[in-house]
Hints:
By secondary structure, the protein is an alpha+beta fold. The chain contains five helices and four strands; from the N terminus they run ββαβαβααα. The protein starts with about 25 loop residues before the first strand and ends in an 8-residue tail after the last helix. About 10% of the residues are buried. Pfam families: DDE_3 (PF13358). InterPro entries: RNaseH_sf, Tc1-like_DDE_dom.
Amino acid sequence: MTLPHAKTWSQRGRTPAVRVRGRCRRRISIAALTCCKPSHRSRLIYRPRRDDGRRDGRKSFSWRDYRGLLIAAHQQLGGPIVLIWDNLNVHKAAGLREFAASREWLTIYYLPPYAPALNPVEGVWSLLRRGWLSNVAFSTPEHLVERIRRGLRHIQYRSDLIEGCLTETRLTIRPT
């Protein structure tokens, strides 16, 4: 619940200050897929995961969470998926590799290491941080989750924003 910083206006000599009670140790993780297909509108599929301190000791997504996201994406999209992933260690977990190998509808390629400019989801996070999450003091983790979902829903319904994030990577889609 650390505040993202953005610029604001105030009277000269009076710096605006927002009082925050204390740091919350709970973490909210989000996994997202930007989906594109020639002659179709771009889509965003995402899953938030709140660290409640109870589930298998992990504070972020496990390979099983990513597996669930991929299964949901396959059901929503109704076709084969070519997944281009960054080199996050969980993306290369043995269980996830075995899952991908056993599914004929899933093909995975990896981006080069340290190449966030090639990942369109980084553009989505940037839009979210600069828009719906900036200049807000979150009172509870639920308040943060609600703002994240509102922002992601807005991006979901505006395919031009998703296409802008895809265009920014300069990667192209070639019909086969």
